[in-house]
Amino acid sequence: MPKARAVVKITGEIQGVGFRNFTVRQARPLKLTGYVQNLRDGSVRAEIEGEREQIEQLLKILREQGPGRIENLEVIWLDYLGEFTGFGIQL
């Protein structure tokens, strides 16, 4: 399976509802690495690395089952760098 990196910006009513914790809980079993963080503009940013299929599965879970209400989920696909060792919340 090809590995990839996704930079994701998520907008909507997603801060203060446990969205980051939910993302971490879903990403780890998929063996994804990276981080998720709240941004000052009310959006959430995530950088995710791993098998592209697993990243796509995580994004689907976030859209369909994540807490809050997603208005938009933008993904920029990049080459895999292997720079993360785990998946967590970045402040």
Describe this structure in words.
- By secondary structure, the chain is of the alpha+beta class.
- The chain has one domain (3-89): 2-Layer Sandwich (Alpha-Beta Plaits), CATH 3.30.70.100.
- Helix content is 25%, strand content 43%.
- The protein contains two helices and five strands, in the order E-H-E-E-H-E-E.
- It has helices at residues 19-27, 52-65; strands at 3-13, 33-38, 44-51, 69-79, 87-89.
- The protein has a five-stranded mixed β-sheet.
- A hairpin with a 5-residue loop joins strand 2 and strand 3 (44-51).
- The termini are far apart.
Explain briefly what this protein structure is:
With 91 residues, the protein is of the alpha+beta class. The protein has a single domain, classed as Alpha-Beta Plaits. It has helices at residues 19-27, 52-65, and strands at 3-13, 33-38, 44-51, 69-79, 87-89.
What is the chain-wise order of helices and strands? EHEEHEE
User: What value does the Rg take, in angstroms?
Assistant: 12 Å
- The helix/strand class is alpha+beta
Shape: globular
Indicate the percent of residues in helices: 25-40%
The average pLDDT is 96
Indicate the CATH class.
Alpha Beta
Reported for the largest beta sheet, the result is: 5 strands, mixed
Q: Identify low-pLDDT runs.
A: none
> Care to count the β-strands?
5
The name of the CATH architecture is 2-Layer Sandwich
Count, helices: 2
**Oligomerization status of the protein chains:** single chain
